[in-house]
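User: ok so my PI wants both of these folded by tonight, can you help

Assistant: No problem, let's get them done. Here's the first:
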Amino acid sequence: MLDIKLIREHPEAVRKNLEKRNDKEKLSWLHEVIDADKEWRKLNLEVERLRHSRNKISEEINQAKKQGKDISEIVQRAKVIPELIKEKEELAVKLKEKVDYILMRLPNILHEKVPIGKGPEDNKVIKRWGKPKKFLYELKTHTELAEDLGMADFEQGASVAGRGFNYLYRELALLDLALQRYGIDFLFKNKFTPVIPPMLLNRSTLSGAVDLSAFDEVIYKIEQEDLYLIGTAEHSLVSFNKGKVLKESDIPIRICAVTPCFRKEIGAHGVDTKGLFRMHQFNKVEQVVYTKPKDSFKMLEEMQGITERFFKSLKIPFRVVELCSGDLGGKFAKQYDIEAWFPRQNAYKEVTSAGNCTDYQARRLNITYIGSEGKGYVHILNNTMVATSRAMVAILENFQQKDGSVKIPRVLHKYMNGIKELRANINRNKVTIKKKIAAKRKKR
């Protein structure tokens, strides 16, 4: 949420920010909020003048009574004022609601060094790590691998809950849990405090963490309750200090969590529709930091570095992309994505996002700090440590072997009870093959 003072004092800077974001629709909103704010302030002044007049008339009535004068004319004047005050206050409330509505939807101010562009094609690749492996044999998709290994049932997940929900079991379930625990341990070693947060939030809280326009399209609501399922642990973690005044000496605050994430929208059709890459329910380790404004962009680099080291330890090739102005989420001032290499798809695809929201979410959630220089809003940053489903796809694709087995990254062995590779259960695999043959015959 932008500061209304910024719009009052520097409307041109806000306008240029919207142009950089290629957000033409919200340029008209800017004019609307400026006009509504001016009228709101004008009404407030009028209400104050009316209250002052009411007080003066009250004194005038008291004086007239003491002097035994006729007060009927003065009382008649006094009766009109409360009605005028009520009328103008009601109008002021409506204008304030309009101002707040627009403020909640205008995007954050971009960092001065964000690349200018219209969309994903203008994002800037700033570094690469690892060399994509060349395979001398035909690669399977991650869904084929998971099914052939007898460790996933995508059709049954779709049958009981719908497309985008899956059953994972055996070593693949262990791999998901291993990535969760390794991610938390990795962050713990980097001074993050683990948190088990609520996975349901009320609307007023969630609207402080996420764009309100996403509610209907992306977020699941609990019927007949003022509760919504979180789309990411970020929603709960940035709300951890909602309404609080923090001490400067306690900042920065580093917290992390692993939670299921629930999202209605799962993205494009095609190779990702079935499987693990895009799902309505998945697990994610998230990191959030509250910091002082002067330290926030330095903290963004630190958080990004932690996640890069994590993926390096998994030996998964990746590149780092800085998002351009036209592709940047509304709450972010600056954002990086890590895109892992997926050899079966012959492409880099997003696996993590790290962004600095500056004071945008803090204003919505009223999170401030007090120190030697007075009181101010904290800056809030968030970063995906690992979305386990996407990391598993990267592992299945990058470490699959010619015989259909999959090597597990060394750092995860201790979290896998010593299991070093995903390998099919021979007896179970025979049953799976028979089922596939029977299904093909049935189709004929």
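One down. Here's the second:
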Amino acid sequence: MASVGMNIDISPLVDAVVAGDIARITSAGRDLIARGAGASELIGRIGTIAAHGDSDGHTVISMGAASMLCRWFVSLQYALGEDPANHERELPLLVQSVAAAMPAVQAGIQVKPRDEANYPKPLYPSDLQEGDTVNAEMHKAIYNGDATTVERLLFGLYGTGADYRTINIRLYDGMSTTFENGGHPLMCAVRGLQLLDAVEWGKSTPDIIHWLAPHVPIHGNEPAWVQTVRDFLADPSHKLDSYRTRLAAPKNENALPLRNLLQSDATPEQVCAGVYDALMNKGASSEGIGSVIALTATDLMQRVGDEDREAFINAAHGLLFAAAVRIAFKQVQDVEALPMLFTSAAYVHALHQQLARPQVNVPATPRPYFSAGLIAPALLDSLSEQLEAQDLQAAFSTARRYTQLEHDVRAMFAIIALAAAKADAVADQGHTLQIVQAAGEEFMAWPKDLASTNIDGFLHVALRAASFAKRNALATS
């Protein structure tokens, strides 16, 4: 059954956004939530309108992040002994993300009705020349910078009723060894498809396909190391096909040496060789390798001080890209997506070479903090207060105690998400929400067979992102 948020009339909220009236946005959002609508679905529905006015991609990515963060609030409600069907606590995320999307929504609403007349003619698999495949044509379109053909191919798949995984893998395969603009094209693909999850795909799919297509092709601005990745994978001795038939349990401990390799003076080719060895020779899984690459990205973020927010966000793109790659492997299991691991590792290694070597913000053992107690609600209340006060050390101490007591970490990250909802999403292009989402997803998805590995880096960067962002007053309106 579709949720209340998918069926309820949201026109008062849309009208408030078009009018640019924050007070009305807050009031309309509160009313919809009081009637049982979840903020995740409401954000998703507004996001599909905003997609038509979002040219750089940040609006939809940020709305996707806010929507996914809202899904952790069920656990928070349970932890606090509250009704899990009550979505009132999610309101700040709805208001902040929708307010930041106002220009895109105001532009996007003008293209309605959003119907087939606004889109190029689908290119169905049956329309291709004999011997051609959607896979080959997608590669050609992406590498030729042909956004129209990318969109036609995606609409062709959608028009055949293809399973959503088919759309995902065709995108990921075609983009797997491409990299431009800080990794935003792949982030748009992964996070845009997550936004579609919030609205249950269906009739909203064309809106996101139309938004995504221009971001997918490359435009000749790739870094030099990308060609090294392509050359490595083009070598017949580096085939990945046998991964498809692997039967043994993953040996993810063999992915851990990548953490040092990516922070060394290795060449891009040596980085690719390390990923290949872990994946194909030593039995690590794609998700395990993706997790280790993402953790390494948090090591790099610790090199940037809290006083330089722009540098912190720039360094965070390694995490955002690596986390998007790992999420892709939750969506699809196809061998064709495996090259993304090599691209992700090479990018994080390139960031390592760009950033200063001294580590100035490595999360040290936090000072003892004993006033929060042991039960989950008390710890969560303390964490919320500490984040509000921007007391990072105390917040880190409380969060670590919470996790060590094995309370539900989704509830903890919901509290961090509420702090992130106070960040001015216009000023930082939604990056605070995106960082908290990525760090939370990676923390919660860390492989169980690597439980002895310290992954506090994910927690620390999420707390830093939420604590030191530029704030506005929307969340308290």
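The CA atoms of residues 157 and 167 lie 7 Å apart. DSSP finds 24 helices and no strands in the chain. Good luck tonight!
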